[in-house]
TrEMBL record:
This is HNH nuclease domain-containing protein. It comes from Microterricola viridarii. InterPro entries: DUF222, HNH_nuc. The lineage of its organism: Bacteria, Bacillati, Actinomycetota, Actinomycetes, Micrococcales. It comes from the Bacteria. Residues 357-409 form the HNH nuclease domain. SMART domains: HNHc.
Amino acid sequence: MEYAAGQLAEAQSLLARALADSDERMLRDDALLELTATAEAVGRLADALRIRAAGEVAFRSRRELGEDRLSAKKGCRNAVELLARTTLASERTLTQRMRLGAATRPRTALTGDTLPAAFPEAAAALRSGALGYDSALAIIDTLDPIRGRVGDLNVELAETALVAAATGPTVESALPFAADEVRGQARVWESVLDEDGTVPAEERAMAARGISGGLTRDGLVHRKMALLPEVDAKFETLLNAYLSPRSKPTFADPDQPKDPRATAQARHDVFASLIDGAARSADAPTMGGAAPTVLVSVRQADLAAGSGAGFIEGCETPISLQAVEQFICAGGQQHVVIGDDGRLVSLSTSDRVFNAAQRRAISLRDGGCIIPGCSIPAAWSEIHHVIAYRDGGETETCNGVLLCWFHHRTIETSGWRILMIDGVPHVKPPPWLRNGRSEADTPWRRSTRSRTQLADLLEQQRKREPVLVE
């Protein structure tokens, strides 16, 4: 094994030379499929070695070794950081490799004796290149958590059957199972072996609840949520309450088209407003003495030109200038001048932010998002500068209106127009809501839902005066 690295380097060089002049576009169909299968076989062998190496690095970097652990000797916090610096792979991939490596490497007893791996069949199949990475992950991730409840013998029985199915052929199938089929079979074994489990279902649900860290892909952050039934019921009820057509007032035309957003998009936007409301709550914890604040950086030149991108602290994906403008409008901005040498030259104070007193006053006046048909409440809404700050608009109550996250994000493109008349918000609908009328023929409509308005309506009803509901 001392010569393994040199042999691998030689194999890498041979493979590189073999592929240098090849062009898969020139291959016939059968030859292309043969190349694909061979490449996968080579990949399985490489994966097996990467798993074994990651498992060994993790074993030598285990916490109980203290300062003698391998990661500490190399100046890293843990095995994941050491492997990331060595391989340049993602932490998620390395964590999976370490988990598979630990499950398929020989174990050491307290007496110092060597014991078989926790999953010896999978280990042998991985080492030979017969078992793929994804199939091994499906087997081990499904069976390992139930070992303590169903016992080693049952896990070994399931492991043997699943490895046989993944490497094939078997009596049941002339071809090996693909990774997704292996995962499905593993879940069947899990349900048979651990039908009820020794842990009550509710306790298992409590242990499994959670919201995963986000993975950025295609400009979106993907998270997985596993909510307890009662929490999901509250969340679902809250979403439905604000998305139900019965909770929304009409505007001009009772037969106006439905919300243009897909249901999933509307649910996202309600969730975005809910987060905004929670962050502004007086009960929200502070960070560094201030309310939780998302930091967004953008170059002044890009902001002035209206092109380019902004960057959120802790997120590698850039955001559009439209999103940056929404952050600025709702949360203010601070000018930081950084010299060519990276030194902070100057720092301004935060400006253009509506203070708490102004927010309370605007909330009382508007009652919620001022776009007709939107039911997002005041506490969840953002404050929008009707005349943009960059155009000379002041941060005053007579220039601020409540908009929910979605309508704030799309106010420049949706066609809705806002005008302050004597300090009161008025709106004009977009062309598709004007019933064929031109903009000039469409009147401005007052759009506030304050409690004093409701009191006025009640007073008029008591006097039996005609009431005009806008």
